[in-house]
Amino acid sequence: MNSLYVYLFVALFLFCVGLWGVLQRRSLIAMLISVELMLNAASINFLAFNRFLSPDPAIGQIVVLFIMGTAAAEAAIGLSIILALFRRYQSVEIGKAQELKG
Amino acid sequence: MVEGLSFELLMAIVVSMTGLICFGLIMIFSLRSINVSVTIGVVGSVLSWLAGLYLFIHYWPAHEAVVFQVNWIVSDNIQVPFGYYFDPLSLLMLLIVVTISMLIQIYSIGYMAGDTGKSRFYACLCLFAWSMINLVIAPALLQLYIFWELVGVSSYLLIGFYFEKFSASEAGKKAFVMTRAGDIGFFIGLVLLFLAAGHLAVDVFSSGHKVAEMIPHLKPLFPMNPETLLTLSAILIFSGAVGKSAQFPLLTWLPDAMEGPTPVSALLHSATMVAAGVYLVARIFPFYEASHLALLVMLIIGTITMLLSSTMAMVARDIKQVWAYSTISQLGFMMMGLGAGAYFAGVFHLTTHAFFKALLFLCAGVFIHHFDTNDFFDMSKGGARKMLIPMIAVTIGVAALSGLPPLSGFYSKEAIMGALASKHWIWLAAGLLGAAMTAYYSFRVIFVMWFPKGGAAGHEHAHGHVGHADADDAGAHGAHHGKAVWITEWCMLSVLIALSLITLIIGVFFHKDLEMFLTGAKEMAGAAHGHVAAEGGHGIGHTTVLVLALGCALAGIVLAWFEFGARRATQMGFLSRYKGLERLFANRWYMDHAYRKLLDYVVYGGFTNTLTRNDRVVIDGGVDGVSNLTLGLGRVISRVQSGLLQRNLYLTFFLLALMGLYFFLV
Fold first, then answer.
1. In chain A, which residue's Cα lies nearest the Cα of B649?
2. Could you tell me the end-to-end alpha-carbon distance of chain B, in angstroms, rounded to an integer?
């Protein structure tokens, strides 16, 4: 097993943990954190592929910088949505927010 | 077969088209101006009477039928002719129709005076007479059928003439629907006959040997041999006559038909509507003679009708209703005569009956016009016997109806009795019973009206000259005075006098002539029946029958005298001692109730409910089903949209994973 796979497995693990968190945690904040984990897993993938498969143009690293920016913006928007929800429901439980039920 | 425009053909066209032209003229141009309409109607009817009279005299011995016809529809080997057919029967009937319709139009000048719908009335009378005239002279049964229905339509219009009155519009509807019920059978019978014989020519069906020739050539239709087919179609065609002539199962429309103005009742009951049924049977009588079963059915139905309606007449208090029931019973009597094989007797009774029944109704009209009531007990109390001319006329009519010599009814009834005597004694017994009942109920009316009892003096008429109701009438109908009243009254009275004279003389002077005229031509045509003259009594001699019939009539009259006429009479019929019977008769043997029940259960209960259910369950259910299905599906799919974010995410990732797996593997 070469080192690329080690990275990929770590990223997969991180992604699965994040996914599990998003799907399973009740708290919106925990879900937001889990989303960050998944984004990080994606970043690791980018870096790993960049490093081992085509090192010359460091596009993967640039993409990771973008991802970090996006993640920051996403965290800001997500937290403000969570705050708005909290104002409405006095809680950050995801189960409370189901007004769009058909 | 039209060869040139001879004078006879011209007259035939006049007699057959005048009514329609008058109807059109009145409806289009003169609905607003009553006097013009009346003139058109009366002039038209006089014209067609003259033409009819000319034809009758011109063709008098009429040994051979004269046919004018053109082919109306020709297709493959189907030919539908249209035209005129003159033989003794149609000429006689034509003369009756034009005479009575003319007299009634003259009478109506007086009777309908002051009615705002008089123009419409005259238009409908013209249409009525026109339909009947063309029915009578039809050379083929299809034409007869078309005008048969037109007679039905115009009688509907006239019975429901006072359509703003609920009972009148109901009566019109009832008459129309009930006769239609019979006509369905008539039409099916015609179709069967047409399919089998290939034509519906009257001159074949009205001659014995041509019918006999035709039978082996009938096409076998379904698994039916020609005799069965013949009997079936004869009975089906007879069902049309049952409806039109108010015979047993379909008789209750006729008593209600008096909702129309009285002249209409007179026309309906004598020459036009109800006579059509008997005329149809007489028209194709040799065809009926070919089937014994059909004749037997006719005899049975005629007997039932005659007895039933006689009992109904015995308890009625409405003078028009008594005459209506007596019409039904006399029609039944004609059917009995025809069913017994006596062609001449049936037709002769139809003739005499047409005149005396028109007379009776028109007399009733005079009384109703004067006293403004239909109840003859009230008329009697009001002083009906002071009106000498109508009273004498109604007495003549009643005597003819009861079959007293030397009036016309005597000869015709006696001819039918003779025919019945040649059959089983039971028919003769029924006929005699009917004659006794007829004499009883008709003389009941007469005695009540001549000899008012109880409170009679309350309403004395101070005027000297009786016969026309001058002072009172002018008071009651303030609209017309002096000369106008005189014209009004004499229009009515002169018609009464004319009809009384006809009733008086037709039996004495024309009995033998008419018999020669009708049966002579029949025998010329080689009719294969020996007992036409109706006088060949097998068991009982001719004089015996005559004495029996007269005796029964006299017995009825004597009974009526003791109950209604004599000084001590209570004017309570013997039937009032049997409440149950009285109620049964007064309610027309509950036939209307039976029809009501039938309607409720079969039409409303069966058809209407089924159709309503179909509407509700199938049609509404179908539409509702589609919308419910959409809603239900929506509900199922909306379950996906649970609002639970994580469940949605599960689904999303699950699907993504599946897609990934797919792309990975493929």
1. A23
2. 93
Among all residues of chain B, which has the CA nearest to that of A19?
B653
Burial class of B98 by CB neighbour count within 10 A (0 to 12, 13 to 18, 19+):
buried
Give yes or no for a contact between B263 and B269, defined as CB atoms under 8 angstroms apart.
no
| A57 Cβ under 8 Å from any chain B Cβ | no
Q: Is the peptide bond before B406 cis (omega within 30 degrees of 0)?
A: yes
- Of B140-154, B235-249, B521-535, B579-593, which gets the smallest average pLDDT? B521-535
* Structure tokens belonging to residue B282: 């007489």
Rounded Cα gap, residues B371 and B449, in angstroms:
13
Distance CA B165, CA B483 (A): 32
Contacts with B639 from chain A: Cβ below 8 Å:
102
Q: Categorise residue B229: left if φ over 0, alpha if ψ from -120 to 50, beta otherwise.
A: alpha
Which domains does chain A show, CATH number per domain?
3-95 (1.10.287.3510)
- The residue assigned the tokens 């005799």 is B227
Split at pLDDT 50, 70, 90, the class of B470 is: very low
**ipTM rounded to 2 decimals:** 0.77
| Cβ-defined contact of A102 to B640 (cutoff 8 Å) | yes
Q: Is B448 exposed, middle or buried (0-12, 13-18, 19+ CB in 10 A)?
A: buried
Contact state of B646 with A24 under an 8 Å Cβ cutoff: yes
How do the domains of chain B map onto residue ranges? 296-580, 594-665
Whether residue A23 and residue B643 make contact (CB cut-off 8 A), yes or no, is no
Q: At what angle do helices B579-586 and B292-313 cross, to 10 degrees?
A: 120
DSSP B260: S
Q: Which helix (H) or strand (E) holds B392?
A: helix B388-402
Angle between helices B262-270 and B141-159 (to 10 degrees): 160
Q: Compute and round to an integer the Cα radius of gyration of chain B.
A: 31
* Maximum pairwise Cα distance, chain A: 52
Residue A94 has its nearest CB partner, among B641, B645, B653, at B645
CA dist list (Å): B318 to B367, B376, B419, B445: 12, 6, 33, 10
For A3, A10, A46, A51, A58, the CA distances from A55, given in Å and listed in that order, are 15, 20, 11, 5, 6
Report whether pLDDT(B277) > 80: yes
Could you tell me if B3 and B86 are in contact, meaning their C-beta atoms sit under 8 angstroms apart? no
The H or E element that residue B205 is part of is helix B202-205
Q: What is the pLDDT of residue B540?
A: 52
CB under 8 A, 24+ apart: contacts of B557-561: B557/B402, B557/B439, B557/B440, B557/B443, B559/B440, B560/B439, B560/B440, B560/B441, B560/B443, B560/B444, B560/B446, B560/B447, B561/B443, B561/B447
Mutation test of the interface with chain B: which of A32, A35, A98, choosing the one with the most B Cβ atoms within 10 A?
A98
Task: Tell me if B643 and A99 make a contact (CB, 8 A cut-off).
Answer: yes
Of all residues in chain A, the one with the smallest CA distance to B642 is A101
Of the listed ranges B74-88, B103-117, B202-216, B534-548, the one predicted with least confidence? B534-548
Could you give phi then psi for residue B71, rounded to 5 degrees? -80, 120
Largest CA distance in chain B: 127
> How far apart (Å, rounded) are the C-alpha atoms in residues B107 and B362?
8
pLDDT of res. B539: 46
Average confidence (pLDDT) over A3-30:
91
